[in-house]
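Repro:
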Amino acid sequence: MALVAIGALITNIPIVTLINWYGPRYLFTAVGFFGAAATALIPYCMKMGWNWFLLARALQGMAFAGDMATFGHFVTYWTYHKQYAFFTATLFFNSIAFCSMASILVIASFVPPGHGNLALFLLTASAFSLGFNIGGFYKSGSMIAGPYSPFVMGQISTAMTVTM
C-alpha cells in the first residue's frame, strides 16, 4: 500500500528530530504503542470502510518510520568502535544483493506473455537474492553513519516503504 510509504515519508524527519530532543527510549516506546494501536484498529477500520483502512495503514507507516530511526540510534551506542571495520564488508553483500536483484528483474521484464511460471520463478529469485542483504545491512549502515545514524536509518526505512 502506498499509504504506508506516505505515512513514513511524512514522519521521517520529525521522528529524527524528536529522537535528538528526547532520546530513543521514550520515542521508541511511544512509536511502538502507536504502531500496536494502528494495527489493532485494522479490523475495525475495515468494517468502517476502505478510506478508514487506508488511514490506519498510513498510521502504521508513521510507526514504521519511527522504528527504523530508533534502531539506528540504538546500534550506534551499543556497538564497539572496533567493530566498525567488520561491517564495511557489508558493502560487498549489498552489492551482490541489489545488483543480482536488478539483473534478474531486467531479465524478467523480457519474459513473453504466456510464460507465467517463468516470470513467477524470476520474481521469486529476485526476492530471494535480497537474502544476501543479511550481511549486516541495517547495522553497518548505522555504524558507518555514526552520530547521524537515526537520520540514515530513517532514510533506509523511507526507501523500504517506497519500494514496497
